[in-house]
Amino acid sequence: MERHRIVLPVGLVIAVTLACVPTPAPGPTEDPMLVHLEATVRAAATAMSESGKVLPEGTQAPPLPPGPLVQPSDLAYLGAFRLPADAPDEVGWLWSGEALAYYPDGDPGGPDDGFPGSLFGTGHNWNQYVSEIGIPVPVVSPGKNLEELNAATTLQPFQDIRGGTIDWPLEQPRAGLEYLPPLGEQDSGKLYFCWAPHLDEGAANPSHGWAELDLSDPQPAGPWRVGEYTNYVTTDYLFAIPQEWADAHTPGMRLATGRYRDGGQASFGPSLFAIGPWNEGNPPQPGAALDAIPLLLYGNVYEEGSPAMDGYAHSDHWSGGAWLTAGGKSAVVFVGTKGLGETWYGCPDGTVWPEEPPFPPECEGRGWWSERFAAQIIFYDPADLAAVAGGAMASGEPQPYAVMEIEDVLYNPDFVLLNHLGAAAFDRERGLLYVLEPLADEERSLVHVWRITD
Predict the structure, then answer these.
(1) Cα–Cα nearest to 235, from 206, 276, 267
(2) pTM for this model (two decimals)
(3) Which CATH number does 72-452 carry?
């Protein structure tokens, strides 16, 4: 017996068991029995689709075999650079790091130094205005000397791009940014954004939108909800899904969005959804619920025995993500801070907060803590996410296939809070991964850079 996977029209997959049918030999000649069977199944699937029927449960194909994967050893560290110091503290790069996006056509008059394009990012977390900067050459400083690093220049100063689409202020706001070229009926590329508060249990409020790239005239549209999912799993990081992968597995949806919320109140690990706002209007109506395809979603503390990411800790903090591709290799990565060793809810000194009184004296920084925190990049196989999108794998099944600890490159590795790393952005054409390290440069963020090697 052999199982052969036959690709059907979008959304329809069937696994067929053939008795005594030889595997077709490589090359242009195909087994006529398989050709006939494929035509038969396609006709049946099309008829079922047109009639509104669905394939019986259990007929999905097994996951696609994984392609070449980006490994930690493929990421070559190129160094870091500083952010500008030319903005007022309350809107500038002090206490920043929440959102970052790469724009391939930015800084067209910049130097020919191998780092073209620009970065959009959010500033001080009180306001989270958005600025655009040019990208200088990163520098490796063996002694972690900030004066040896190049500094970015401001291309567009900080502006509030929300324009009233998002109620402000938000308590401990979570934010995401990503650029995509014109899609659907759009006539210009857009800067996509999302904002939601850290503490908003169970809320599924409108949180996503888009803006024009001219920060002085952003013309924001939105906000929209991600289906009926809570903001705890949808509203933090944003990044692009490669066109070819999206065409095969999430047609029309090229924007990935998600969030990790500490304490297991939403998902025992990072979550991820594919969306395509341009499919639902230009722009969709404010408050619209966007169609969303789950790609990664674990269980939570409210679901006994539900799935979790391997090594999960309540003190984890996954703050950014990117879909890496280079030379035929790929990976979906999340960057953030991993809690290691014993984990507790309470004070940084190890005091565990009881569920019932008497309570100990209040401490600064009460929350989820672990014996050690480490900056990490975790790697997921896109084939697993394809299997989730196609219904062949549950959303809580994918697991990281590799972990890369990067504490050694940080300039403030002993920082005790849960944000050793911030947001991430990716230059797909050159295989460059940009990752923020908050509070590393006189309370400003630093930008670290890796290149994916062939």
Answers:
(1) 206
(2) 0.86
(3) 2.115.10
